[in-house]
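thoughts on both lines:
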Amino acid sequence: MDYIISILPAMMRGTMWAIGLFVITLVLSLPLGLPLALGENSRIKPVKWFCNLYVLVFRGTPLLLQLFFFYFVIPMALGVRFSQDRDVDAFVTACVTFVLNYAAYFAEIYRGGMNGIDRGQYEAAASLGLSKVQTIFGIVVPQMLRMVLPPVSNEAIVLIKDTSLAYVIAVPELMKAANSAVNRDVTVVPYILAAVIYLLFTFVVTIIFNKIEKRASRFDQKEEW
């Protein structure tokens, strides 16, 4: 117990880095996925091709490889020098990579939700004289957002676990803190503690999304009534 107490401050600092990465990724990638999804369904060919290629690249290559690419390859190619605070550089790189990666996954979730909307609603909106923009953002998107809550919550859970990948570019998150303690003290206790923290993190996020889904389902029931 004394050992756990001794390593807990470092583990908590790592947890805060992981939570920061999780929140920033979710806050930025969720809205970024929407224009990508709209672009995939666009009739403007260059826009459609760009969005399809973007989604293909970021969904078709490992997140780990993307982290290496943004942290090592791009700075070398551009001749960018890291600042003295390498932790911040690594964290910013991780945030950018995670946001771009998860935006592609959310775009596919949104696209599937929009394609699941009955085509009759588009025709009804057109008969009422609504423009395409009004139809998309006033009718289609609100329904789509409620429909995609379950897959979005699943991706959020995956994101919690994926934050551990930031360790490979030296982001001082939870997994790096646990690994440092294991190498220093030659014990697996830090790994067990990290697993418990990840489970608690997942449990809290699951509860939050469950409450959001319940509120959305009550709204749907009111509409049906």
Notes: The first helix runs from residue 2 to 40.
